[in-house]
């Protein structure tokens, strides 16, 4: 998976590749799908949600440029797979999941794997996590209709927000960097995510 799907597509960050080699992805998918855990596509994780394609996780985490010193906020814990990678690459990880059953499953796996630098909360992540702000990185694993201003407001100077933005069927991955001169926005390319549901995302019934 690492060689053919991630390195072959141009991701060279050795610490990130090492973290991908270390975290066993099959533990984050249900037993019936474990033989597909390292394939080049997303997989269902229940509650109509998916664990993202390995390369997409790599691209997003790479865009945060982590050096083990950062405090990171993840929105959309899902399976907890990306959370584990963030725990390997940052100092502290805060993660928010709106669906309780997914959050509980992720908490139990990450505890079993002894990731003590992770804190998971159930709720609407579109508000961010004001008590723990500012963050050096914020990573949103679900597609938003627009970039929530409140999340930009929780970025430290030098901090980066990575978020898919677009329609419900297609998005572009954006990186917003909080520079001393203001916010710089880059488009990292097309992607497809499940929808971000919440106050500053899509409404529940659309
Ligand atoms: N990185 C995860 C992605 C899971 S899919 C993985 O690879 O497993 C996206 C997740 O975002 C879903 O679990 C969904 O329930 C969650 N989500 C959607 N809107 C949210 C919100 N407003 N706050 C928190 N989590 C949200």
Can you describe what's shown?
By secondary structure, this protein is of the alpha/beta class. It starts with a helix and ends in a 15-residue tail after the last strand. The protein has a single domain, classed as Rossmann fold, CATH 3.40.50. The mean pLDDT is 97. It is built from six helices and nine strands; from the N terminus they run H-H-E-E-H-E-H-E-H-E-E-H-E-E-E. A hairpin with a 2-residue loop joins strand 1 and strand 2. A seven-stranded mixed β-sheet has the order 5-4-3-6-7-8-9, covered by helices on one side. The protein has a two-stranded antiparallel ribbon with strand order 1-2. The chain is 24% helix and 29% strand. The structure holds S-adenosyl-L-homocysteine (SAH). The site of S-adenosyl-L-homocysteine has 26 residues, from strand 2, helix 4 and strand 4.
Feature tags:
alpha/beta, Rossmann fold, 7-stranded mixed β-sheet, two-stranded antiparallel ribbon, 9 strands
Short précis:
This protein is an alpha/beta fold. It has helices at residues 2-6, 14-22, 54-63, 81-89, 100-112, 149-152, and strands at 43-46, 49-51, 71-75, 92-97, 118-122, 135-140, 155-166, 171-179, 182-191. It has one domain (2-191): 3-Layer(aba) Sandwich (Rossmann fold).
Q: Which structural class should the secondary elements be placed in?
A: alpha/beta
Helical percentage: 10-25%
Biggest sheet, spatial arrangement of strands? 5-4-3-6-7-8-9
Q: What's the Cα radius of gyration?
A: 16 Å
**Count of spatially separate domains:** 1
Shape: globular
CATH superfamily: Vaccinia Virus protein VP39
> β content, as a range?
25-35%
The CATH architecture designation is: 3-Layer(aba) Sandwich
The CA-CA distance between the termini, in Å, is: 35 Å
What ranges have pLDDT less than 50 throughout 5 or more consecutive residues? none
Main beta-sheet annotation: 7 strands, mixed
Briefly, what CATH class?
Alpha Beta
Integer average pLDDT: 97
The ordered string of helix (H) and strand (E) elements is: HHEEHEHEHEEHEEE
CATH fold category name = Rossmann fold
Distinct small molecules: S-adenosyl-L-homocysteine
Number of strands: 9
Task: Please report the number of helical segments.
Answer: 6
